[in-house]
Structure formats: structure tokens, C-alpha cells
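re: ur question from yesterday

yeah so i grabbed the chain u mentioned. its 338 aa long if i counted rite. heres the sequnce exactly as i have it in my notes:
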Amino acid sequence: MRTSTERLDDSAETTAGLRIPARYRHDWALFADWCTATDHLALPTTPEALARFLHEHPAAPATQRRRVSAINTVHTRHGHPAPGRSETVRRRLDAARAARADRLAPLLHRRAAQLPVAGWPGGLFGRRDALLLTLAATGMPFARLARLRRGDIHVDAGTLVVTATGEQYCVSPESAVGASPAVAVYYRWAEIQAFLDAYPNTDLLAQHLTDPVEIDQGALTDRQAQQPLLTPIDRWGHLPLMPQPMTAQSLAALVRDHLAGRVPARTPLPLRKQRGQDDNPHVQHETEVDLDPHYYERGVAARRQARDSLDGLAEVFDAIEARADALLEELLTVLEEL
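ran it thru and got these C-alpha cells back, copy pasting raw so excuse formatting
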């Protein structure tokens, strides 16, 4: 069945009414015919379909780049995202880039597995940075990493799936049995964010990372799904009160420091004792408190007395303001006579 983009004739118009620049007609016709033959949609197409087209039509790098440019131009001129800007297509066009990403991926995964997941604040930094390194191993650009939201990532049949600007990045299991180690990395950071959703308190988070308790990671609300996935952390383990993303520059610098071994070990910080705790910070003591039965009566009487004492204060302020205005008027008169 022919798609919305029929074979191009010699005019600037297709039968579907698409206007194709003259220099791109041949490349677009080749792509549109391939889509028809393979039952793919040409407009809009997917990065995966474009990558397959390039694979099945080998050519010189300059020719492939021209084809991608043609397909991108047609898409953008008709209000669709350019499929050639995806990492999938970039890897197909740039063999050196793909080889570099493939070489770095195992190093990033290995470094992520070495980071701490418990302790304060090392476990907090370790969990966030492990997810950053895992996602960087997919080849996702840092600008795109910085824009990720909590709702952009999920687990599907043991595979970590990230959707960014219409493109999917997957970290599949190494074998047919079990889940990818990246899934555990993601769940550890998601646990931190779920804990802060329920208990937005740094001291309680420190207690949790020292002596973890089970946290229910239910479905995200619409507001939570729109919150940044990777957020900054200060040296004391505080996250922003209003969730904000890390910048692409910060993410890139952090990944480089991890690969170079320049990230310093986090010095353990002491936990604050909560009220009712002895030397064991995890033992809670219940203290019975007797409330004065006349507490509310005394409070009401104090407020009534305050109201009576302040009654008429507005008149005093009005008199002071009138006197100040009179003094100002006298001062202006003296200045005019000088």
C-alpha cells in the first residue's frame, strides 16, 4: 500500500502535494520508494527506519549525509521532527563516533558498578552518578540527558528504556535470563526520588541511606513525571527544594571526571540525632506528654488581653503620621525662605 508520499515526478510537487526542493528530489524519491516497498511510513519516518534505509543502501559518507539532509529537510518543512538528528542515525553516518561510543560503554558501566549505593552522603552521589554513567553509555548527547524527566524512563521486560525527543535508548540484558544491571542502577536512584516524595527531609534521607527501609515506588503522578531525572546535590547532600535539572556542561564534566578517576571519595558525614534518640540513632523512645487541660482557655484569654491592650493603637499611629506631615511642611517652608 502506497504511503502518504508517492513516487516523485519531475515537478516540484508530489501527488500528495509535498513541495520538495529540486536538489533533494532524487534522494527523497529513493527513500519514499524504499518506504513503500518495505511498508514503512515515509513522512513522518522513525530514526530506526532511516538507519535501516541507510544500511540497505550503502554509499560514500558524503552521499549518505546528503540523503539524510534531504530527508531531514522534507520533515522539518512539513512540521515533523528531523529523524536524522537521532543518535541511531549519527552512529550509522559516523563510524568513528560509533566505535568511540562502543569503546567507552564498557568503561562507563564498569565505573557505575563501582560506585557506593549506601552511606551518607556517598550513597546518594553514587546512586545518581551511576545512573548518569549508565545513560551516557547509550551515546545519548549530554544536552538530551540534561532534559530527561522522571517519566521518560521505564523498565520493559528486563530492559531499561529511555525516551528522549521521540527516540528510544535501550540497555538490554546481557543474556536472555534476568534483567540488565542498568535496571538495578535506575531503581536505586528512583528509590531516592520516591523517598523524597514521601519524606522531603535531608536528615531522614541520611537515615535511610545508612539503614534502608522499603519504599513503595508506585506510579508517578503527572507532576512527578515532569520533574528532572538528574538533579544537582550540594556537598552536604541537599537537593534543590524545587527540583531542577543539572546542566549539560555539569553532566559532561562529571562523566569525564569519573572516567579519569578524578572524582574524590565522599567523606562520611555524621548523622544528626533526632529528638528521643540515645547513642543508637535507630532506637526511638516513646515519651508520654501530659497536656495542660486549660491550655486553650489560657490561649484565648491571652489573645483577648492583647486585643484590648492594642485597641486604639491605630489612632496613635494616625496622630504620629499627622505630626510627621506637619513637621515636614514646616521644614519645606523654612527651606523656601532661605
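noticed a couple things. The domain at 104-260 is CATH 1.10.443 (hpI Integrase; Chain A). also Residues 313-337 form the longest helix (25 residues).
anyway ttyl
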